[in-house]
Amino acid sequence: MVAHVMMVGASLADLTPPLGTELAGLFDDRISTDVESPLLATAFAFDSEGRAVLLIVCDLIYLPADLVDRAKTIITERVGVPADRVVISCTHTHTGPATIATRVGAKVDSRYLEGLPVRIAEAAVLAWARRRPATIAVGTATVDGICFNRRYFTDDDFVITHWGNRPGEPRPAGPTDPTVTAILAEDLDGRPFALWANLSLHYVGIDDETMISSDYYGRFAAAVRAQLGDQVVAALSNGASGDINNADPRRRVTLTGTRRSTLVARAVAAAAVAATAMAERRREIVVDARSLPYRADRYPVTAADLELAAKIIGAEALRQAQGTDQALPAAWFSYARGNPVPEPLGRRFAHNLAELAELPETRPTTIGLITLGELGLVALPGEVFVEHGLRLKEHSPHRLTAIIGLANDHLGYLPTRRAYELGGYETWRSPTSWTRPGTGEELVETVLEAWKEHR
């Protein structure tokens, strides 16, 4: 494969929804009251003699395939880059709008969603128009005290999500990957103008969860500009973070909310800058991309699940009608391990399960493989457990590899088979987290097979 002189462009588009939009990501109903920071689509165009790749990072919780495909269609029509060379991923901010309609939870704004693909495409079109001759530097650095596996063993060796204020010594149920991967683009005079980065970390929020905010991702971009200059377009993409968060059970740093979000963003930005500061600058690199098909199967909802869900929903309606506080049936759904889904989430997941059973038993999705010189990127459609990402890195043919999660589609949490056996929140199934056990491993195997065939 021949390397050619690199052209790079970067740009932004505003995705901020109107005030009054319901915010997704938590279990409480939240109506947005203000804008703490705008939500953006940040696009990076890498073009090597017509072999182009577009990476677009959106400050949204996730995106379904139909919205992604509409945005890609517009991009292809406007700039000619094929859809399988475009990756649209989400940061997973928890203070942004709902993007998938469900019967419980935040309501979608259909008018906002109707215009969203056009806004996303706008960022890509502008990035393409602003291409210029550039050098590329790629590198990695690690951040300490930032990433924690959020799943912990209980005394009976099942798993809970979040340690909270529990006494005793926490025993994490999995690893972390505190690796920041970064791509820095500079003009031919050595001035930086674009930085794309990646880290396997869920989100880090702000004090007021009724405000629209890009969470720590927007603060990351600001911290990069503070170090490299206001001319730099920067974005942080989410990696294999399905079981990773920033909650340190030992509380070595007691800051929370907005101050913690800012602190984490600065640390990650510093790592991204350090990763590329002394990395080799290259003008001629191989750029390639392809899409791998995959069919995702729905979690097998049992008759017992549906019967229990109906009992909980019926008991809830009766309790509301009578104004009593009568206990509801324990939510021992088939995916529950160690403990039933606790109240009040049991009621929510009863509604979820009834809706989940109505989804198609299988549907197609895609995996994206991107090559930028010595860097390989794997774009996976969901909240990937870090174990899957680490396995891909271990067997990758590339010198450096990063996983882009929440990319091009949304399958929800993609736990390991072992995680399903141990239980915990990430294994509970819903219309936005709906695949059967083993899906994550199959996605990984699909990539590994494709790498073998392509060597």
Overview of the molecule:
With 455 residues, the protein is an alpha+beta fold. The chain has two domains: 4-293 and 362-454, no CATH class; 299-356, no CATH class. It is 29% helix and 27% strand. The chain has helices spanning 65-79, 110-129, 215-228, 257-277, 303-322, 345-356, 386-395, 417-422, 439-454, and strands at residues 4-14, 23-24, 34-35, 40-48, 51-58, 86-90, 96-97, 132-133, 135-142, 148-149, 151-153, 159-161, 179-186, 192-199, 211-212, 233-238, 244-245, 284-285, 287-297, 362-372, 375-379, 383-384, 400-404, 413-414. Strands 1, 4, 5, 6, 8 and 18 form a six-stranded mixed beta sheet that branches. The chain has a four-stranded mixed beta sheet with strand order 9-13-14-16. A four-stranded mixed beta sheet has the order 19-20-21-23, with helices on one face. A hairpin with a 2-residue loop joins strand 4 and strand 5. The termini are close together.
How would you sum up this structure in a few lines?
By secondary structure, this protein is α+β, with helices and mostly antiparallel strands. It has helices spanning 65-79, 110-129, 215-228, 257-277, 303-322, 345-356, 386-395, 417-422, 439-454; strands spanning 4-14, 23-24, 34-35, 40-48, 51-58, 86-90, 96-97, 132-133, 135-142, 148-149, 151-153, 159-161, 179-186, 192-199, 211-212, 233-238, 244-245, 284-285, 287-297, 362-372, 375-379, 383-384, 400-404, 413-414.
